[in-house]
Automatic annotation (TrEMBL):
The keyword Transferase applies. GO terms for molecular function: methionine S-methyltransferase activity; pyridoxal phosphate binding. Residues 503-788 form the Aminotransferase class I/classII large domain. This is methionine S-methyltransferase. It comes from Zizania palustris. It catalyses: L-methionine + S-adenosyl-L-methionine = S-methyl-L-methionine + S-adenosyl-L-homocysteine. Its EC number is 2.1.1.12.
């Protein structure tokens, strides 16, 4: 245009151009408003926070379309003036007629200047052709950005490579309270996605920032001096309650009738009350008795039944003062019960919170060790189904055990859900003036007698033996090669889909339905048959779904068979809930894969077997099962009527596939003949792994056995992904299933990066005295510290003779590198290294491995060992 239009252009020439303009890449282009839209977005970048934009707008697209152009970009608008002007006779509006023909949209014209009722483009066109004159509205709008600093951040993010998301942007809100909640979160999310190229790992107990905000809120608004180490985060209140009950496994628990809806059905129907007070009970089904919420009735039940655990809320009239809470603390202490008090309905995320008796008590007294506070956060203005819960305990042992329980049974809580509520807490803390008065001294908690129930035997032994997340120390950060996730950069297409899922409004159910996309994915990837008999169940994490399957196995009185060299988290989780497990022997020379003959020998000795198979890529070894491998294994399982759980959650990133044949499970299953109806195949999967969306998890489980489906649903506390996450993955799956070139290239690059990392790690380890088992896919490999076994190490006063178990601690103490030991892999003297780290962290990890060799082997040579 700059070449066409010169300073000497005549008025007639400029007028002839006034009806036309190049497309600007905005959704408003279809209404001829693309240039206005571009001006608005460029204006957002330069305008001062309290500045005002004034636009005169032709009204042909319709008043609603014109006003929405501003409102969906976060503007408050005022119409200053309006008139009608004649439509130029030489303007061809047939294009507008065509738009109306192919859509429901109607443009706005008027007959002459005196008509008050608008007519559509088709009517106006016919009227003009018959000699009539038409006009359209001309309005002047005053536009001011609401929450300008946050809106500027949102548009800065969109300009930085995410322009395609702007068509979905909707910052129009009828309710200011909704805008005040959502816009700051979108600004935060934009900053988070921009700054974190690879989604950071947070402790399973909850994001440290979120726990800090919860503790800060309690201190600022309720004068309770908590720290992040008093707060454990859960996906939901229901998950928190069930996990707590599984941790203690009481013979008898009394639970508020309003809080039992998501507990296992078996707990609510068990009648095994006799002999319940024996602390050494067999840890079978917990018996739950429903109780009224009114404190005097509940106290009478506690006094008579003497339960080991009590979970209850507070009636509204009793929640105002601390008297009812103190009475519950007293009676549970007297009978030796653990108390979990739920304050979800009474915690207000407000700058003017009402009186809360439980929090009032905590402001003056330390929480006794036998009590904990539960709170489910669901009171937000935007998403009724977005939940995060937290538990508060001032007992270090209980806090640690709850943190480890969430790590074993759930994995972690959705980071974005924590970020959402974290923004609410942050806004409240920013509003609050810091209290300069010293914190009042709290009375210490009473000493609780030893008769209070401790952790269950299975939980205690598992918590003692399992390997858990190691947080950063105050001095230095930990390099994690011990985690089941990728830290490679998240592609912009993933971040765009995530952001779009939140900036949109009125998303329909069909847009969040990932079922058909998952069926297409598993058919293309594994040849898994999709039929009307199958049911797809979604979970926040694959681990949460797996643990529900373990409970189904227990309910079936089955035995869960793991191959030697399985995922250590999964094995520990099964032991935590006291499942009966058995190990299938494997060998190094076959890549620690299950061999059909060995499987048959094992199944001979087991009744009601459940066989766990990780594949095609085996976690943690990185070996691959071929199509013929899985067909032979399924044939053996069918012969013995075993239930098979195929875990594909670490598959899809195979990088060494020479001679490997892709699975065709449909053909395998059709070739298998089983006379035993118990034989079935459940397919477990995780979408983030092969879609390169690390840190944004969505697990799925496909079941084709109706009896197993019914049993699974009898454990209803499953933490499920939020609709925004399902929207995100539906978009990504659509791209993958349609073989989108850009996403396909990204996945190929991802695989090539992993292959290079595996090669680099293998060479480094071998040069440092480790024997490496080759990896052909996934994100980890196994290695044996051959040169280190039996050597002695001294680090900061800590001394040990190295073996496959304590070498983990030795490396961590000496270098800050964290790996999984042989106690995690289950294979004697073999450790696990996860190599999908951010590039600088990976290089640091290689340096740590070399430094450890210098520390141990050189010292050993100097000492003549």
């Amino acid at each position: 245009m700059s070449k066409i239009v010169t300073e000497n252009s005549s008025e007639e020439f400029l007028y002839s151009l006034s009806n036309y303009c190049a497309l600007q890449g905005f959704v408003e282009d279809q209404f001829g408003l693309g240039l206005i839209a571009r001006a608005v977005e460029e204006g957002i970048d330069v305008i001062k926070p309290m500045g005002i934009m004034v636009f005169n707008m032709g009204g042909r697209p319709g008043q609603g379309v014109c006003e929405r152009l501003f409102r969906r970009r976060g503007f408050r608008i005022t119409k200053l003036w309006q008139t009608k002007i004649m439509q130029a006779a030489d303007t061809d509006i047939s294009a507008l007629v065509e738009i109306e023909k192919n859509s429901r949209h109607r443009f706005e014209f008027f007959m002459d200047l005196v008509g008050d009722q608008p007519v559509c483009a088709r009517t106006a066109w016919a009227y003009m052709k018959s000699g009539g004159r038409i006009s359209h509205a001309l309005s002047v709008y005053s536009c001011q950005i609401r929450q300008p600093n946050q809106v500027k951040k949102i548009f800065e993010f969109l300009r930085d490579g995410f322009h395609e998301v702007s068509s979905s942007l909707d910052l129009s809100f009828d309710d200011d309270s909704v805008a005040d909640e959502k816009i700051p979160f979108l600004a935060y999310l934009a900053s988070f996605l921009k700054e974190n190229k690879s989604n950071p790992w947070e402790p399973p107990a909850g994001c440290l920032n979120f726990r800090n905000l919860v503790a800060g809120f309690m201190k600022s608004y309720h004068h309770i001096p908590l720290t992040p180490d008093n707060v454990v985060v859960f996906p939901s209140r229901a998950v928190a309650i069930e996990n707590a009950l599984r941790l203690f496994s009481p013979a008898l628990a009394i639970v508020d009738e309003h809080l039992t809806r998501h507990l296992p059905k078996q707990w609510l129907t068990s009648l095994a009350i006799e002999g319940r007070v024996d602390c050494n009970h067999s840890e079978e089904t917990v018996t739950v008795i429903e109780a009224p919420r009114q404190s005097d009735l509940l106290i009478e039940l506690i006094r008579k039944l003497k339960p080991q655990v009590v979970v209850t809320g507070m009636a509204q009239f009793e929640a105002i003062t601390s008297a009812a809470f103190e009475n519950l603390l007293s009676i549970t202490k007297d009978v030796g019960s653990r108390l979990f008090i739920d304050i979800s309905e009474h915690l207000e995320l407000s700058s003017l919170p009402s009186s809360n008796g439980v929090l009032k008590y905590l402001a003056g007294k330390t929480l006794p060790s036998h009590a904990a506070i539960l709170c489910g956060l669901v009171k937000n203005q935007v998403y009724s189904d977005l939940e995060v819960a937290f538990a508060i305990s001032e007992d270090a042992d209980v806090y640690r055990a709850l943190s480890q329980t969430i790590e074993l049974l759930e994995g972690h809580t959705s980071q974005i859900s924590q970020h959402y509520y974290g923004c609410l807490f942050h806004e409240l803390l920013a509003f609050q003036i810091a209290d300069r008065h010293p914190q009042q001294e709290r009375q210490p908690a009473e000493v609780i007698s030893q008769k209070v129930i401790g952790f269950s035997n299975s939980a205690m032994s598992t918590l003692k033996e399992a390997e858990f997340f190691v947080p950063d120390s105050k001095e230095s950060g930990v390099i994690h090669m011990d985690l089941d996730r990728s830290f490679l950069p998240v592609p912009s297409v993933v971040n765009a889909s995530i952001f779009e899922s939140f900036v949109r409004q009125n998303i329909t159910d069909s847009e969040t339905d990932v079922g058909s996309s998952i069926q297409q994915l598993v058919k293309d990837s594994y040849g898994f048959p999709g039929d009307g008999c199958s049911e797809i169940i979604y979970g926040n994490t694959c681990l949460a779904l797996f643990n529900k399957l373990v409970l189904c196995c227990i309910q079936d009185q089955g035995t869960l068979l793991f191959p030697l060299g399985a995922n250590g988290h999964y094995v520990s989780a099964a032991k935590f809930v006291n499942a009966k497990t058995l190990t299938i022997p494997t060998k190094l020379d076959s890549g620690f894969k299950i061999e059909p003959r060995v499987l048959a020998d094992t199944l001979e000795k087991v009744s009601r077997p459940w066989v766990y198979i990780s594949g095609p890529t085996i976690n943690p070894t990185g070996s691959l099962y071929s199509d013929s491998d899985i067909q032979e294994l399924l044939s053996v399982c069918a012969k013995y009527g075993a239930r098979v759980v195929i875990d594909t959650s670490f598959s899809g990133l195979e990088f060494q596939i020479d001679g490997w044949k892709r699975w065709n499970l449909e053909r395998c299953l059709s070739a298998v003949n089983s006379a035993k109806p118990s034989f079935s195949v459940a397919l477990l999967g995780e979408l983030s792994f092969e879609l390169t969306a690390a840190g944004h998890d969505l697990g799925f489980l496909i079941l084709n056995d109706s009896a197993l489906v019914d049993t699974f649903h009898s454990f209803p506390s499953l933490s499920r992904p939020h609709s925004t996450l399902k929207y995100t993955f539906r978009k990504l799956l659509g791209l993958k299933n349609q073989k989108d070139e850009h996403l396909s290239n990204l996945i190929v690059e991802h695989k090539e990066t992993l292959k290079n990392r595996a090669d680099h790690l293998t060479k480094t380890l071998e040069s440092c005295g480790w024997d490496v088992a080759a990896s052909r896919g996934g994100i980890s490999l196994l290695a044996k510290p051959t040169a280190y076994l039996g050597k002695t190490i001294k680090v900061d006063g800590w001394e040990a003779k190295l073996d496959g178990c304590n070498i983990k601690e030795a490396i961590q103490r000496a270098t800050g590198l964290c790996i999984n030991s042989s106690s995690w892999t289950g294979i004697a003297d073999h450790c696990r290294f996860s190599f999908a780290l951010e590039s600088s962290e990976f290089e640091r990890a290689m340096g740590c491995i070399t430094r450890f060799k210098d520390l141990v082997l050189r010292n050993a040579q100097m000492n003549g060992n």
